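Standup notes
- DV: blocked on the single-chain target, sequence here:
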Amino acid sequence: MTSQVSSPAEHADEADEPGETLVGGQRRPPGDKEVRRLDRVIIRFAGDSGDGMQLTGDRFTSETASFGNDLSTLPNFPAEIRAPAGTLPGVSSFQLHFADHDILTPGDAPNVLVAMNPAALKANIGDVPRGGEIIVNTDEFAKRAMAKVGYDTNPLEDGSLAAYNVHPVPLTTLTIEALKDFGLSRKEAERSKNMFALGLLSWMYHRPTEGTESFLRSKFAKKPQIAEANVAAFRAGWNFGETTEDFAVSYEVAPADAAFPTGTYRNISGNLALSYGLIAASQQADLPLYLGSYPITPASDILHELSRHKNFGVRTFQAEDEIAGIGAALGAAFGGSLAVTTTSGPGVALKSETIGLAVSLELPLLVVDIQRGGPSTGLPTKTEQADLLQAMYGRNGEAPVPVVAPRTPADCFDAAIEAARIALAYRTPVFLLSDGYLANGSEPWRIPDLDELPDLRVQFATGPNHTEEDGTEVFWPYKRDPQTLARPWALPGTPGLEHRIGGIEKQDGTGNISYDPANHDHMVRIRQAKIDGIEVPDIEVDDPDNARTLVLGWGSTYGPITAAVRRIRKEGGHIAQAHLRNLNPFPRNLGEVLERYEKVVVPEMNLGQLATLIRARFLVDADSYNQVNGMPFKAEQLAAALKEAIND
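- DV (later): unblocked, structure below
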């Protein structure tokens, strides 16, 4: 954690090359290795899914966060638990972009690629710009391994990598040699080669080491020999960088002193931030938190994390299926808990009937959808934004549900609190739409002070709330608050507050079962009016130059869009930007904002779902820019598309 002071600086988030200077403007004395200072670096670790690339990237990220750099990450891994070794589908990678200024994306292209085998090289070489650094584990480049991924000749010897700065390193051999005194088998020793690579990269970029060594000893506390072997491999990698002639230069990326407001920071992933936001919301509401969930990628981490926090009154239930998970959560809502169910797109489809029941019962329930590639099972480990229309309309009958979407991994904390505020105040299920990019990515997060969090406490019904014509005082479960149109929340077992629940239509006020057409029309309209009347903040527009074109986004496109906008403005272009968190209801000023611009461009990781809603609601001929390949937008790609829109 670090404490930083200042306001965010304006930088081009995705410059083509990192800027560099020599430390102090001059070379080090003879005999010392040269140290160059960079403003930003993008590193990608790539290897088999069993090579520990996610752990390696996570540790490098943690040390980078503790050093004080701004950062953004992109883990990318196969859906298979253990994909075939040495194959292209089995490649796992972790990309980290860190800088001495504020950044918004994991970067378009890696400046440094660490390739643990031929498959990792083949799968990622197309993203490395000319002149980029490639560190290759030469031990894995056997003829059979190369043939498996289509290499007829050794790319390390045939000149095909001449455009890059290639560093051939026998990582496996060096790791085994470093651990020869630990009494491990060759296979056991080989497993530490990722720590050797981490040590080498930590030396190259002057990363702290104490945290990683402490982490390894904690992770393998029950196997101290393995712990010390990993520490030894990590140190050997560091020493190799220090002593080998192949690495004549190391690099420094200064802390991002100007990027952060004052505060205490930590590195956080989207799913972790969302989990903390749910806990914070339950504490601010003074309600127990209940999670009813069935494991599904990429939402499972929320279940894992919340299960660790029983000390905060959190109760987690791993159900036998998606329907049981949301059914239990809705029951917990009826019982007075802040109730949550977590899932991804396929699970939302299964939960739809119970979401409709929650709409009918008018109970607070958070439905967290960590979107992934679809349809059906689709791409479990890849990202997408294609559940928006499902969240809006994916239920039978007129069943309106508020929709909230975070924009960055850290923003998942605030979005969770916002979703809880709406659910509790308006007695309604609420969709929280994150996605795999946000869920697994990470960035620095300023830990808020408690007095910054909203008061979410609610009043349960305690007695009669209606007087009959004969003077009898009774409890009407559907008598509404005149401001929010929310019905009372009556805890089961409270004397005198007995009332009917279930999916059959209720009579407004009394809650009695009703088949009256006029009553049904009234209930449909009043439930819609309740959602339409939810108070949400106005949308803010970033438009310093009175532009004619507005780029409108939602969810995780915020980072790439903002990076693209910065590029365009740096080159003298004029473009405005706005980003939606509340997608149902829309901010009240959205229509007025859209009318100010000649052209509106909506980039989405779907085929135009928000653009469809914008056209229908506001009669604005919004232009869609779409991508559905399981990966987030690249800033350069978006900037080119937006420039074309401006110039049309």
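- Follow-up: The two ends are 47 Å apart (CA to CA).
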